[in-house]
Each structure stands twice: as C-alpha cells, then as structure tokens.
Amino acid sequence: MDKQPATFSISDLAREFGITPRTIRFYEDQGLISPRREGRNRIFTRRDRTRLKLALRGKRLGFSLAEIGYLIGMYDTARDKNAQLTELLNGLGQRKAALVQQREDIEAVLQEVSAFELQCQELLSAREARKASDAAGSSTANDAV
C-alpha cells in the first residue's frame, strides 16, 4: 500500500504535476493554495496538494481563476457532496456549451476561408490563362510580320 507523505515541498509538487515552482507560487498569490512557512521554505499539506490538483484540472478545462477559486471553495466547505457535484456538473455543462459554440464559430470561419481561397485560386487561374492567351496572340502577330 503506497502511502503519501503528510507534507510536500514546492519542488515535490512541481515535479509531481510537471509544472514550475513559479506556477505554484502564482496559485498561492491568487489565494488558491496557502502553504505554511518554515523560514523561507513553503510546506504544503495534502489539502494544499488536492487544491493545487483541482486548480490545474480547472485550468485544463478552461475555467477562469475566479471559477477555479469557487470550485476549490466548494471542496473546502461542502458537507453535501451531492450539491458539490451538481454545482460542478453545472459549471462543466456551461463550459462545454461555450466550447461547442467556439467550435461552431471556428468551423464557420474555416468554411469562409476555404471559399475565399477557392475564389482566389479561380481568379489566379483565369489571370494566368488570359496571360498565356495574350502571349500566344502576340507571338502569332510577331510571326506574321
């Protein structure tokens, strides 16, 4: 049975989550984690580790810092896990809807870009054909002289 240590250093957490100590200090500055200090060293508890993990997960999912703070606050205060999960599901649903809308917007823009590319290619082809036709016509005129 693998047992986690009770405390972690900033380098332990940075290594575990594949982030820089600066990132951890940023989340501390934002009030999302609050390690205790022993001299100049930060000492992180399991609670801090979990809060950092939630913050990183929220970031990956595209939540703002305020939303991440709210979710972490729920983790700390929620006695009713069903209410906490329902709130999280609501947040995820809203984020998913926003991402679906962004994808639809991107697809629409891509279609416009493709149509414009096709238009440009057709114009270029027409100009090249006209240029070739003009060159052939002037070459024939020069041969007649």
From TrEMBL:
Quote the Gene3D superfamilies the UniProt record gives. 1.10.1660.10
By its UniProt entry, which CDD domains does this protein fall under? HTH_GnyR (cd04776)
Query: What GO molecular function annotation could you give as one example from this UniProt entry?
Result: DNA binding
Q: PROSITE patterns from the entry?
A: HTH_MERR_2 (PS50937)
Return the protein name: MerR family DNA-binding transcriptional regulator
User: Which organism was this protein described from?
Assistant: Candidatus Propionivibrio dominans
Q: Which InterPro entries match?
A: DNA-bd_dom_put_sf, MerR-type_HTH_dom, MerR_fam
Looking up SMART domains in the UniProt record yields: HTH_MERR (SM00422)
Q: Which Pfam families match?
A: MerR_1
HTH merR-type domain: which residues?
7-74
Range of residues in the leader sequence: none
Q: State if DNA-binding is listed as a keyword.
A: yes
- Keywords of this protein's UniProt record, alphabetized? DNA-binding
Q: Does the keyword DNA-binding apply?
A: yes
Q: Which domain of life is it from?
A: Bacteria
